[in-house]
């Protein structure tokens, strides 16, 4: 069983921006969720693992391959769906997949055809295999993106923000596809959507400001907030007061009313009731905590 070992990776693009700051992660077989807000450094980490850029410091091992010492060895086992996935819009799905298979080094025409058709079947695109990829919906394009990432049966699959912009039905379909694939490979899913991780990933980490600020199993992380998340319905004009005096994790508008969720070890005041915490509370509490303490939490 192969694992991905990220050891103290740092990457700067300029003297002002440290996109990755001493990132270390142990990623076993299965799905691993990397959650973080825009600008956290997720794509920088994905591109570094995909050997598209070198880190300034640190080392990444996939099994016993040092991926920056031997990028070719990694690339032959890698499937990558980048955040911006461009296609040749006029080519049909089958033609393009066949072409990409050739670029990936699958020289036998018969093998390419078999793999392309099997992957189009797996990603539910078989019926539209002869249609131009440029006519596909967002969800179909993302499924095509996964099909190309799976060419050559990779052992390490990286998908960067794959569900952004998909409608709920397509998102579900896409996540189901990922969970099927994720059982027998190392699959790294980068996202800013908390539900993607909650629904799919037995292990996860949160990246903020280029640093890993929390990692562990979603259920254990949620457990740490039990008895500490409170909610109350308030008047909208009271919000600044609560934001100033309490750790407000989130503000929701429900049927015209304003509901706040607050992190506190005790009931902050009358009218607050306890909530069953979820992964979103974990995420917001960590981002909130990072802004105030910058500490890393690890619950395994
Ligand atoms: N090629 C680049 N040149 C200069 N700065 C960059 C480059 N790529 C990323 N950055 C900067 O590095 C930081 C991390 O960006 P990155 O794209 O890795 O974050 P992200 O978590 O993927 O965010 P998003 O989801 O918005 O893409 C940001 O401050 C970004 O502006």
From TrEMBL:
| InterPro entries per UniProt | AAA+_ATPase, ABC_transporter-like_ATP-bd, ABC_transporter-like_CS, P-loop_NTPase
Q: Name one Pfam family in it.
A: ABC_tran
Q: Name one GO molecular function term.
A: ATP hydrolysis activity
Against SUPFAM superfamilies, the record matches this protein to:
P-loop containing nucleoside triphosphate hydrolases
Which keywords are on file for this protein? ATP-binding, Nucleotide-binding, Transport
Q: ABC transporter domain: which residues?
A: 4-234
Protein family according to the UniProt entry: Belongs to the ABC transporter superfamily.
Q: Which PANTHER family match?
A: ABC TRANSPORTER, ATP-BINDING PROTEIN
Q: What is this protein called?
A: ABC transporter ATP-binding protein
Species name for this entry?
Xanthocytophaga agilis
């Amino acid at each position: 069983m192969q694992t991905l070992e990220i050891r103290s990776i740092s990457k700067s693009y300029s003297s002002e921006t440290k996109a990755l700051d001493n990132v270390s992660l142990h990623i076993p077989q299965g799905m691993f969720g990397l959650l973080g807000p825009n600008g956290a450094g997720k794509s920088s980490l994905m591109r570094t693992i995909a050997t598209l850029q070198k880190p300034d410091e640190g080392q990444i091992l996939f099994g016993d391959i040092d991926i920056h010492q031997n990028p070719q060895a990694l690339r032959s086992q890698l499937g990558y769906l980048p955040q911006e996935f461009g296609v040749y819009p006029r080519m049909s799905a089958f033609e393009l997949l066949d072409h990409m298979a050739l670029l990936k080094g699958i020289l036998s025409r018969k093998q390419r055809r078999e793999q392309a058709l099997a992957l189009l079947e797996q990603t539910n695109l078989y019926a539209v295999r002869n249609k131009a990829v440029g006519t596909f919906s967002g969800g179909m394009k993302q499924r095509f993106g996964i099909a190309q990432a799976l060419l050559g049966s990779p052992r390490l699959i990286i998908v960067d923000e794959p569900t952004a912009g998909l409608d709920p039905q397509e998102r579900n379909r896409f996540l189901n596809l990922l969970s099927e694939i994720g059982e027998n490979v190392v699959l790294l899913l980068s996202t800013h959507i908390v539900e993607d991780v909650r629904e799919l990933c037995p292990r996860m980490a949160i990246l903020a400001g280029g640093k890993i600020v929390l990692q562990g199993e979603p259920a254990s992380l949620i457990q740490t907030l039990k008895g500490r998340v409170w909610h109350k319905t308030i008047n909208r004009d009271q919000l600044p007061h609560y934001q100033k005096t309490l750790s407000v994790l989130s503000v929701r508008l429900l049927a015209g009313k304003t509901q706040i969720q607050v992190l506190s070890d005790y009931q902050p005041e009358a009218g607050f009731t306890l909530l069953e915490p979820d992964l979103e509370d974990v995420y917001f509490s960590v981002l909130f905590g990072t802004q105030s303490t910058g500490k890393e939490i690890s619950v395994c």
